[in-house]
Amino acid sequence: MNDQVYCRSDSKYAERPVAMMWEGEKLEIKDILASWRTPDGISFRVLAVNEQLFNLHYSESIDNWQIEQP
User: Fold this and answer.
1) What's the confidence (pLDDT) of residue 13?
2) Least buried of 13, 29, 47, 51, by fewest C-beta within 10 Å?
3) What is the distance between the alpha carbons of residues 46 and 11, in angstroms, rounded to a whole number?
């Protein structure tokens, strides 16, 4: 599944997620609580404007986002 995440990308793709689609609604990201790299790509724990927490995972090798609720 390829979830939709909108990012700010200054020098490389996926530097800072700014919004995402969740259950048919575009949610702005209020805060990035953590970010980390894995062998597959980059991940973020974010707080959306609706106060829900999400984990966003970007797999660089297949150019694919995955959104999960922790």
Assistant:
1) 72
2) 51
3) 21
d(CA 60, CA 40): 6
Q: Where are the domains of the chain?
A: 5-68
- Per-residue pLDDT tens over the stretch 10-63: 777 778 899 999 999 999 999 999 999 999 999 999 999 999 999 999 998 998
Note the pTM of the prediction, 2 decimals.
Answer: 0.88
* Burial of residue 69 (number of CB atoms within 10 Å: 0-12, 13-18, 19+): exposed
- Write phi, then psi, for 52 (nearest 5 degrees): -90, 145
Alpha carbon 10 to its chain's center = 16
| CA–CA separation, 53 and 22 (whole Å) | 12
